[in-house]
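Moderator note: this is an archived Q&A kept for reference. The question asked for a predicted structure of one protein chain; the sequence and the answer are reproduced below.
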Amino acid sequence: MFDIWYYLNYLTFGCFGTNNIFKMDSTKYVTIKLLNTGGFGQIFLVENENTKYAIKQIETNCPSDMIKVQKEIDIHLSLDHRNVLNLIKSSRDVSDGQNVGTFLMLMPYQENGSLQDDFDNRKKSNDFIKKDRIKTIFGGILDGVEYLHTRNPIIIHKDLKAANILLSQDDTPLIMDFGSAAEGIETVLDSIQSRRLLDECNECCSMPYRAPELFHCEIGTQIGEKVDIYSVGGILFALYHLRGPYDLEYETGGSYALASNSGVLKFGKDVPIPNQNYIKGLMAVNPVERLPIKVAKEHFTKLTFENV
């Protein structure tokens, strides 16, 4: 299918080859190809001295955008965990009196792609993930989320989803993309704050794994670690089914917001009842009822993941 975004970027950058070079500090990175593009910017596969990297390029057009991107970079640079994608370094080229500029973020290239890529490839042949692999991948995701949630201040990712989990060469899950992340817990105090948060969520938080409270951001709502717990539950559901919890409802004309607020989850027959209940505990509509990360990890060790 023709991709207009790819074509527009092709016109902008020309043929992806040796004619296109990113420079960070004094190091040059030769562009190989465009990996992804979207509202967040563009991600390129680049190479330096026979080593491949991914460069995320973000163009900003106003001071508020610059502040937002710099916050993403600051949070990401502060992280060091085996289940979090490493941000090697970043750079910024500003102009127009510091009001606009281009940010570059250099990260290791993960050839295996994302968990979502794995789902998409498997769906073509109905090749479901083996249960022992589900256990290993999800255990790594829990470890990464625990690391984020036990930092001071706490880090709330707010956009955990299969597409934001990369798989390393040895199949280690790596949490990526901190463009929606926040430090600390935020309570919605008034309608102005509610509208701001709702706009942010609609822009940056993907609907298939979004916690119910983020569809409304009502006054009195606490936006904290439980939004990530909900998303983690959705990822475990997807590891079993190769799709998000409410993708089928959406594909048949339903609404992610209404479906998630119903709390109804339809499991495949190969998901054991204790594992179903565990996912329900992560994805409770009321955030107060969701398992805290340490309890979630403890309960996870008691579940059975047996290949049939």
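Archived answer notes: The first strand starts at residue 21 and ends at 24.
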